[in-house]
Amino acid sequence: MITGYKAARNRPLTRGQKLSNKALAAVRAPVEHGFAHLKNWRVLGKVRTDWSAFAGQPMVSVGLKPVLTKGDPVRIAAWDRLSAGSARFRRAERGFTLAWGLSLVGECAARVVGAYTLPVSTMAWLSTVFLIGAFVVAFIAGAPFHNRIEKLVEAEAEAAVSGVAEHFETEDRDRCDRRGRRGFRHR
Fold it and tell me: What is the pLDDT along the chain (187 residues), one digit of tens a residue?
């Protein structure tokens, strides 16, 4: 491992030592930024400590749920029912998580390789391109799973609403029958 030079109280760094420290910092910066990026997203901590894609709720579902349910209580309840009991839904969730996870891990690997093989001036702009590319790949690879999840949630929500509507229609019919007014519906 290469470390930089340190100055002592009575001995400042020479110009060559300062240039050496600057070159070392330039190589380390993109790699450290990549690690900081991962830590801010808490990707590494989750992957290391929580295999949530295979047991429990996948990480990406936490972000996907508000997008697909749009804050609608019926859709949220449908999501929760599907998450608890539908194998097709769980497979789609895992596929979506896998698409995003592989995309982001690939982006991190590309940054590390680039940091050690390309000039710093190139990595300064290329790391942004890597991130944008990772998002594009994740959106494209995750789209079939996203669509599958969306259709399942919509179908479950519609089934729940029609089930509630049928319940109220039956209740209205029974109420009308008791009063002796067939065909009359309360509004």
Answer: 578 888 998 999 999 999 988 888 888 887 787 777 766 665 545 444 445 545 556 667 777 888 888 888 888 888 888 888 888 988 898 888 889 889 989 998 898 888 888 888 888 888 889 989 999 999 999 999 999 999 999 988 888 887 754 544 454 455 555 555 555 454 4
Distance of alpha carbon 176 from alpha carbon 21, whole angstroms: 87
The answer to whether the CB of 103 falls within 8 A of the CB of 60 is no
Short-list 114, 89, 102, 84, CA closest to 47 = 102
Amino acid at 30: P
Would you report the helix, strand and coil content of the chain in percent, each value rounded to 5? 80, 0, 20
Indicate the residue type of 24.
Answer: L
Q: What is the residue-wise DSSP string for 99-117?
A: HHHHHHHHHHHHHHHHHHH
Rounded CA gap, 21 and 27, in Å? Answer: 10
Is the torsion defined by CA of 43, 49, 53, 58 positive or negative?
negative
Q: Which tokens go with 38?
A: 């991962």
Is the whole model's pTM more than 0.85, yes or no?
no
Burial of 120 (0-12, 13-18, 19+ CB in 10 A): middle
| Nearest to 104, CA basis, from 60, 150, 58 | 60
Q: Which amino acid is present at 51?
A: W
